[in-house]
Every structure is written in structure tokens, then in C-alpha cells.
Amino acid sequence: MKNQVFSFYESLGEDARQQTDIFELYFPSGYDFLEMDQDTKEDFISENPRVNKALLHALFAGQKMNQYARHRLISAKHSESFGRFAQAEMGHLKQEQVCLALLNTQLDMIGWEVVFVGTLTEVSASPREIFQRALLANAYGIMLAHNHPSGNVLPSEADRYFTKRLKSLGKQLGLPLIDSFIITKSSYWSFVEEEGD
After folding, report:
1. Can you give the pLDDT of all 197 residues of the chain as single tens digits?
2. Are 179 and 83 in contact (CB under 8 A)?
3. Alpha-carbon distance 179 to 129, whole Å?
4. For residue 95, how many C-alpha atoms fall within 13 Å in the half-sphere facing its CB?
5. Cβ neighbours, 10 Å, residue 63
6. pTM of the entire predicted model
7. Sequence-ordered alpha helix ranges (H) in the chain
8. Which of 100, 89, 98, 106 is CA-nearest to residue 158?
9. Residues 6+ apart with CB under 8 A from 140
10. Could you say which of 29, 151, 157, 189 is the most buried, measured as most Cβ atoms within 10 Å of its Cβ?
């Protein structure tokens, strides 16, 4: 944090070294500025009223932005890392589920949602619901995973049809389906890895 504070003062044409030393008197290592009492806050501001008040506002805004930042769950750039993640999340389930991975522009997963729950042998999924969730999350792209409790990792004709339909709709919406996975307890199957789709 010291480097950012130094840069802040320097960019405003202040004596950055001196002002950073004063800052460190009020904010020793590990001290949270939100814990600062009113008297200490006023003392700090009085050291350099215009600049220090702006610095406190910037620190507060930065902390608030950090609270609401989307946290990256995993990177989906490599199908193996996503396949292993999905396997850990749903490979053990006794009934079929369809899960949606929401991706940002760097293909980092920013959300993971169960979108449909089915029976022991089948699940009925709606493209409308899938894309609606992705649009609400302002996702760049999506990946889909569904499990086969039977242990058979190969896709059925219905799986292939549904994946092709989602891929086509995603292109039209500008919200690409990056990959689709079938998950079992012991393995995973990726359409991109296996079929190049």
C-alpha cells in the first residue's frame, strides 16, 4: 500500500516521501483506516486538508470496490482444469444436474450455477433459462456441464443435439458456448477436446 500512497502524493505534486511518512504515522502496518476514530481522522486531514481528505475518500472507495469485485473461481482456458473442477462439484451426484459456468473475457469463471435438476437418468434443460442467467450476470461466455450418474461418460444423441443448439444460439446472441462437458465420478468428457466443436 505504501507504493500506491507514494504515487498518489507524487501525482498531485506533493512531497511524496514526506507525505507518505506522515501517512504511515496514522496508518501503521495492518491498521484498517475504517477503524479510525473521528479525532484521528480530523488530525490526519489537518496535516494536508485538501489532499488527505481526497486520499481518505479514495481509500474508502477502493475498499468498497474490492468488496464488490467479482472473484475468479478458476480459469476455464484449459478444459482439463474445468473438467476436474466440475467433476469435484458434481461427479458424485445421484441424479442428473445441468450446471452453468459464467465466464469473463479472460475466460475466468466468475459464476457457477445449478440450472436444472433431473432424475436418475435424464434432465430437461431450457436454452432460454441458460442464456437468461448468463445475460443477467453480464457474462462474456458460458460453459455447460451435466453429470451422468450411470458412469457412462459418452454423450447421447440428445446431448449432442442440445450442445449444437446452444452453440448456435450463443453465436446469434454474441454469448458463446465455449465448451460443454459430461461429468462422471471417475472422468469427464469435453466436446471441444473430443470433437473439436
Report:
1. 677 888 888 888 889 899 988 888 887 765 566 667 788 888 888 999 999 888 888 877 776 665 554 444 566 667 788 888 999 999 999 889 999 999 999 889 899 999 988 765 555 778 898 999 999 999 999 999 999 999 999 999 989 999 999 999 999 999 999 999 999 999 999 998 887 65
2. no
3. 18
4. 8
5. 12
6. 0.60
7. 2-11, 16-26, 38-47, 49-68, 79-90, 127-136, 157-173, 191-195
8. 98
9. 103, 104, 105, 107, 175
10. 189
Contacts of 122 (CB under 8 A, 6+ apart): 96
Taking alpha carbons only, the member of 160, 147, 154, 83 closest to residue 121 is 147
Choose among 115, 118, 111: nearest CA to 93. Answer: 118
Cell of 1: 500500500
Packing angle, helices 49-68 and 38-47, rounded to 10: 120
